[in-house]
Amino acid sequence: MTYQRILVGIDGSDNSTRAYDTGVALAKALNATLYLTRVVNRDRGMDVTFNVNDDFYQDLYVKAVQELVPLIEQAHDQGVQDVQAVPRLGDIRTLLASELPNEFNIDLIILGNTGINRVKAMLIGSHTGYVVRHSKCDVLIVK
């Protein structure tokens, strides 16, 4: 199988940086379109508990957009022809596992391995684990 549309989740961690590097290398080698996403996770529980308003999320979204700009430029500089930024605000799990892959017909998702410990993973799960379990396309986890 040749991948033509690769989605990379960016969160600023070292593992997501490695996922980005892997995505760039694969997109270049396969002449694939590279989609970079930074998801601002909207947590309705936090909204109510801490009285978080839309301005808070809008500020985070603007920052997410700004963080993707240099990554697009770097990917172009490394020879990737088609790079698109797809920042989103919403539920990180469903956006990565289904909404973005369906919207852009993604055939490979690349994510960094999570850094949460086993106890936390057992209690709440990880975003990466959720994507692996629920995505209909291939998922590559980078450590």
UniProtKB/TrEMBL annotation:
Domain UspA stretches: 3-143
Family that this chain belongs to: Belongs to the universal stress protein A family.
Identification of the protein by name: Universal stress protein UspA
Classification lineage: Bacteria, Bacillati, Bacillota, Bacilli, Lactobacillales
